[in-house]
């Protein structure tokens, strides 16, 4: 059961999630101005959609921290930022590399995280106008390559359990403290369960 038939849009949630991840990464980057991203991404229509995007965004940042130490990914991000050829083409190459072994919820999370890190890289290189381009490239890739898969796999609502487990694994590998992990895991599953219950009540 995809979200589309229950008043929530997988396309809208995905686009808002990309924007959320990029904006969260930029909060840690710099005070340098960059153009607003809102006109390029659709606005969420319900509180349920906002809750979903907020919770997914937290899990994506935790999962993405694993990529932070992956030199191959860091080199790929630098390659896009420093490319003298089409940065959009280089970004697509990086995105295709993320999914070279197939699409999973965790790899979708990694792509969104990479987009956020690339936005930070552009701001640090004093190219803040490129942030909007990164959002556009990521949204385009999402629409053309990932949205169909997401709908076939039950929509974003079905991502919670897998992303929650991936979040737990990410934090476990970095820290012996598990209290926060359990909270995130439970929060993700609880929100997913509540949303599923609410949506099924409307059918």
From TrEMBL:
<feature type="transmembrane region" description="Helical">
    <location>
        <begin position="179"/>
        <end position="199"/>
    </location>
</feature>
<dbReference type="GO" id="GO:0042981">
    <property type="term" value="P:regulation of apoptotic process"/>
</dbReference>
<dbReference type="InterPro" id="IPR046371">
    <property type="entry name" value="Bcl-2_BH1-3"/>
</dbReference>
<comment type="similarity">
    <text>Belongs to the Bcl-2 family.</text>
</comment>
<dbReference type="GO" id="GO:0015267">
    <property type="term" value="F:channel activity"/>
</dbReference>
<dbReference type="InterPro" id="IPR026298">
    <property type="entry name" value="Bcl-2_fam"/>
</dbReference>
<keyword id="KW-1133">Transmembrane helix</keyword>
<dbReference type="InterPro" id="IPR036834">
    <property type="entry name" value="Bcl-2-like_sf"/>
</dbReference>
<dbReference type="Pfam" id="PF00452">
    <property type="entry name" value="Bcl-2"/>
</dbReference>
<keyword id="KW-0812">Transmembrane</keyword>
<feature type="domain" description="Bcl-2 Bcl-2 homology region 1-3">
    <location>
        <begin position="60"/>
        <end position="156"/>
    </location>
</feature>
<dbReference type="GO" id="GO:0001836">
    <property type="term" value="P:release of cytochrome c from mitochondria"/>
</dbReference>
<keyword id="KW-0053">Apoptosis</keyword>
<dbReference type="GO" id="GO:0005741">
    <property type="term" value="C:mitochondrial outer membrane"/>
</dbReference>
<dbReference type="GO" id="GO:0051400">
    <property type="term" value="F:BH domain binding"/>
</dbReference>
<protein>
    <recommendedName>
        <fullName>Bcl-2 Bcl-2 homology region 1-3 domain-containing protein</fullName>
    </recommendedName>
</protein>
<keyword id="KW-0472">Membrane</keyword>
<dbReference type="GO" id="GO:0097192">
    <property type="term" value="P:extrinsic apoptotic signaling pathway in absence of ligand"/>
</dbReference>
<dbReference type="GO" id="GO:0008053">
    <property type="term" value="P:mitochondrial fusion"/>
</dbReference>
<dbReference type="GO" id="GO:0008630">
    <property type="term" value="P:intrinsic apoptotic signaling pathway in response to DNA damage"/>
</dbReference>
<dbReference type="InterPro" id="IPR002475">
    <property type="entry name" value="Bcl2-like"/>
</dbReference>
């Amino acid at each position: 059961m995809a979200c589309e038939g229950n008043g929530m849009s997988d396309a809208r949630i995905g686009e808002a999630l990309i924007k959320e991840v990029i904006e969260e990464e930029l909060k840690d980057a710099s005070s340098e101005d960059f153009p607003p991203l809102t006109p390029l991404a659709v606005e969420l229509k319900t509180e349920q959609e906002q809750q979903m995007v907020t919770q997914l965004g937290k899990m994506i940042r935790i999962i993405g921290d694993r990529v932070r130490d992956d030199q191959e990914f860091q080199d790929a991000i630098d390659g896009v930022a420093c490319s003298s050829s089409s940065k959009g083409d280089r970004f697509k190459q990086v995105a295709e590399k993320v999914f070279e072994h197939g699409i999973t919820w965790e790899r979708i999370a990694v792509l969104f995280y990479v987009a956020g890190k690339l936005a930070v890289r552009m701001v640090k290189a004093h190219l803040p106008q490129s942030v909007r381009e990164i959002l556009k490239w990521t949204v385009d890739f999402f629409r053309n390559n990932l949205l169909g898969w997401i709908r076939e796999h039950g929509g974003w609502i079905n991502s919670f359990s897998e992303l929650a487990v991936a979040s737990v694994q990410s934090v476990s590998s970095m820290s012996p403290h598990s209290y926060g992990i359990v909270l995130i895991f439970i929060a993700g599953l609880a929100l997913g369960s509540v949303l599923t219950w609410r949506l099924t009540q409307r059918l």
